[in-house]
Amino acid sequence: MTELMIVIRSGPWEEYGVVEGLRLSAAMLGMDQPPLMVFLDAGVECLRPQAIKNPAALDYLRASSDLGEVRVFSESLEEREIKAEELDHYFAALPLNIEDLVGLMVECRSVVVF
Amino acid sequence: MRILLVAYSDSEATTKKIEGLAKAALARGHEITVFLNGVSVRLVESGRRIRGFPNLLIDGVRLLVCRTSATTSGIESPDQLVGGAEMSSLSELVDLMEESSKVLFLGQGASN
Predict the structure, then answer these.
(1) pTM of the entire structure?
(2) Which structural domain, as residue segments, surrounds residue B37?
(3) Which residues of chain A register pLDDT less than 50?
(4) Which of A37, B93, B97, B103 is spaced 20 to 30 A from B36 at the CA atom?
(5) Domains of chain A by start residue, with CATH
(6) Is the residue at B112 inside a domain?
(7) B38 — contact with chain A (CB < 8 Å)?
């Protein structure tokens, strides 16, 4: 079971929240405990190509998608009229709906929102 | 029960939440560790008068500070922290999360 779900609600312009969330993800990856990353609300904007300007944060996000799982909330994409194809393919973000999100939250030991 | 509080903000509201939760949990006999990350590390910068935090240390709360966040905030050495606070790392945070019965994250940007 994934121990931790890291939810990114901050947009790429709110760098503090995004960087701290991705830094925590990197630490968990380094300890062989890959978290489940979920992007929702303005956070989905982080998955657009070139959205994240901070090089360290971009590396953390790439590592999260390489070694863990990145999910994106479908409703947030719809609200923002973003198509899944418009997201950076590198991150391989899998869409999830509200039922999926709740189910995964129940499975995780902790959920942290940035 | 071992309870881990992880802070991400140096706001007064976050300080009060940490203080209140820690005191309540201590009163019930739980073991409390507070991990300060991001800008919350400023809460234990020596010389900064933060109501409540010194008392938590006296009461037996373990107070840990992310070294990377401290450096980013201009805190280069443990001497710049209030007595009793310890320098730590995110890898120690991950270990603590595994060891703790409950983990509460407080004060991170979008959740408040």
Answers:
(1) 0.85
(2) 7-85+99-106
(3) none
(4) A37
(5) 4-113 (3.40.1260.10)
(6) no
(7) yes
Give the total number of structural domains in chain B.
1
ipTM value for the complex: 0.78
State the Cα–Cα distance between residues A11 and B22, nearest whole angstrom. 32
CATH of the domain at B50: 3.40.1260.10
Query: Contact A23/B105, CB-based, under 8 Å?
Result: no
- Quickly list DSSP for B66-111: EHHHHHHTT--SGGGBPTT-EEE-HHHHHHHHHH-SEEEEE--GGG
**Chain B residues lying within 8 Å of A22, measured CB to CB:** none
- Cβ distance B18 to B34 under 8 Å? yes
Band (B108; pLDDT cuts 50, 70, 90): low
Closest in B91, B103, B108 to A20, CB measured = B108
Lowest mean pLDDT among A66-75, A83-92, B54-63, B98-107: B54-63
